[in-house]
Fold this protein.
Amino acid sequence: MVRKVGETHREFKARMIDPVSESFCGAKWYNATIWLGHGGTTSCHHPPAHQIDLEEIKTNPSAIHNSRHKKKMRKMMQEGTRPKECEYCWKIEDMGKDADGNEPVSDRVYKTVIYEDRDLKHISTLDSNSDVNLKTCEVAFDRTCQLACSYCNPAFSSTWVKDIRTNGGYQGIKSDARGHFIDDAPYAEPFDRGEENPYVTAFWKWWPELSKELEEIRVTGGEPLMTPSIYKLFDWFKETDEPNAKNMRLAINSNLMAKEGLLNKFIDATQHIDHFHVYTSCEAKGPQAEYIRDGLNWDIWTKQFERFASEARYEGVHMMMTINALCLDSITQFLDWTLEMKRKYGHHVPGISVNILRFPSFQSPLTLPDHLRKMYHDEISNWLQAVRDRGEKSEITGSELLQPWEQDQLSRLIEYLDVVKTPHRNTAEQDLLHHDFKVFYEQYDARRGFNFKETFPRLAEWYDSIAVKDISDDEINDIQSPDSHGITNTLYAKRIVTEDGEVKVVEMKVRGRQTGESDDDYDDEKYKNEDDYKPNPNIKRKAGSSIGWDTEVDGLGGAVGNE
Ligand code: SF4
């Protein structure tokens, strides 16, 4: 953090942000998430992604970040106008005061404070047409992944794509997730295998320049260990004479289920990186983990985790827990396993973060009936109390085994299970969520060879009691468009991301292509009010600013602990 010693976030805001303008935020210049697979970019992760212009990147590869759209938002921020897409922050600020009666601190403060004063001063008056090198970058090269977790979807996993292509779309899901399991998300992979992806090409063209100042690059996926680009990046760290390579932090989100050969390559690559972090995920134990994270093998995964912990060179090993309805059944056993690892490798291996899944809302913990929620609430609460009572310290590092910030996150989950009644504000009624829960897992069992009731015996009685009844569209019109939801495996769902970051299916139509579905008029509509926008019939724009749901907020891979 680049705050003065003893300076609070509010004091930092008054010193560095407010003098620039009422809407200034460093993330718009220095931070980006870029989905190179289909050419989407955003900064920070709250605003919906927008499409990268294929023409622009031909002459300016940095336009994978320095897009015309972002430049417009930057200008607004220098002038004190609030970009609508940043509503996430304005809502917090417009609350007026937080629970303690103080001025609320929005994310733009947290996302600006990480940069040096001199860098913030530089952009505060910089011509908004200028290009800026990123300081923190999250990038996904493609969606190749050997897992197909129940809460993921085809936009992030090629194994999910395989399920849909083999078995067709999931039928009968009616709440907010209904568009996400019906097609193979062709917008997420508009280029055929072997075809050059111009966004990836632009990234590598920009890299020699970008790498001079980049402080952190985080690679997500898909599964990064399955994309050739990650090995190109590893080789760069090994061979480069760029001085900044010594300072740059490389982080990857990996499911750690790579085949042995790739894992060896991965562990070897870390030896040449000075600041390496791995983020992996799990939240349940044994067969329950294998059910939720289809493709994971608990024995192999734990073995590979330990191989990484003991053989790799790293600064951080992070466990991102995605809290869903099913993991609560063995979450305390999983937490016991994390303590076992911490005893063996130090209090920070792994550091755990607790990310509560919001989408698809029928898989949210809040879909569970009250009596089960109460049972899990009590189990986690008792577990945490017992750990606190023991106050165990790591024999290796001397620090508390479960760090205060990890305890806070669990405490927040306990509170969440108790008081928050709906997964997100546009959520469907509980009946509808129960309906979708059962409809989904019945199909999931049939396709994946699982057995819900055998895997989750404590949920079996409730599961049996869920009546899958006919719910007419009239009852669900207020949840999400479209009005019709005929589902066959040839349907294509066109999605948009609202200013709230919510993914909406706005249209469904029969697809004409196997992959690479495009909606050329989509961007025309999106940019039609921009002064400088001239629709060019020769530019083929690929559809799909939306890539599913938010990877960070919805616990699919981005959340960072407070370590
Ligand atoms: S949503 Fe907030 S933190 Fe993100 S770019 Fe906008 S103002 Fe910055």
In short: Residues 370-390 form the longest helix (21 residues). Residues 25, 27-28, 43-44, 46-47, 86, 88-89, 107-108, 111 surround iron/sulfur cluster (CB under 6 Å). Residues 422-427, 474-493, 497-503, 509-563 have pLDDT under 50 and may be disordered.
